Amino acid sequence: MKTLLVINASPNKTQSHSRLLTERFVSLWQQQHPEDHFIFRELGNEPIPHVDQQWVKAAFTPPEARDTEDNQAIAFSDLLVKELQAADVIVLGSPMHNLSVPSSLKAYIDQVIRMQVTTTLAPGTPGSPYVGLLHNKQAYLLLARGGYGFGKGEIYEHMDFQEPYLKAILLMLGITDVTSIKVNQTAMGETSRLASYEHALAQVDALFI
Ligand SMILES: Cc1cc2nc3c(=O)[nH]c(=O)nc-3n(C[C@H](O)[C@H](O)[C@H](O)COP(=O)(O)O)c2cc1C
């Protein structure tokens, strides 16, 4: 039996392309693996606290030396980390916001990158100075963008701080088995929106053939 962590970062509760993709993914997975277990983590419509000074103090204090305030400050982070650790498969639906990820997802990332817990530093290591501590996990990035041209070799490739950023964060965590499906042009007219959405849906469906 596998555990899937499904994360949704779109502030749109309806008419969200990334949510439609995560819903399709979950529904197809459930059909194929009815015994598997899902954890749903909502980011787009739930407050995700930013790290503050007490959080930083707590996170960088060894567990045995933490006081009550420290433990309270990182209790939510601990919960989010447990969800990630429990997951065999992570399904992340996210819009592009201002070339990157929504601030709720950035706040989530800051909560789950924990030194000596989810990642550790190894300066000088080729490729990345981080060694992730989450092993044997698969990730699916289901991404939505209003515009176009962010793909490899395309006109605005240099402005995509969403997909490369998320892949770098997953690498920090130790997750290298990453599949990425994108719907583009959601804000660029019905014909192009529909074509890109149907193409992305077909890519999700193809994962389950
Ligand atoms: C605050 C905000 C910023 C956005 N910034 C960008 C952007 O930089 N580039 C882009 O292509 N689309 C941008 N969009 C459009 C969204 O990426 C697009 O509407 C996407 O479909 C939203 O995801 P969803 O359909 O899952 O809700 C932005 C939308 C919002 C609300």
Q: How widely separated are the two ends?
A: 20 Å
CATH class (first level) name: Alpha Beta
Element pattern in H and E: EHEHHHEHEEEHEH
Which bin fits the share of residues in helices?
Answer: 25-40%
Residue stretches low in confidence (pLDDT < 50, at least 5 long) are: none
Structural class of the helices, strands and pairings? alpha/beta
- C-alpha geometry: globular
How are the secondary structure elements laid out?
Elements: E1 3-8, H1 17-32, E2 37-42, H2 53-59, H3 68-73, H4 75-86, E3 89-95, H5 103-112, E4 119-121, E5 130-132, E6 138-144, H6 163-173, E7 177-183, H7 190-206
Parallel strand pairs: 1-2, 1-3, 3-6, 6-7
Antiparallel strand pairs: 4-5
Bound molecules: flavin mononucleotide.
Textual characterization of the structure:
The protein is α/β, with parallel strands linked by helices and 209 residues long. 38% of the residues lie in helices and 19% in strands. It contains seven helices and seven strands. Helix 6 links the parallel strand 6 (138-144) and strand 7 (177-183). The chain starts with a strand and ends with a helix. The model has no long low-confidence stretch (mean pLDDT 97). Residues 10, 12, 16-19, 95-99, 144-147, 186-187 line the site of flavin mononucleotide.
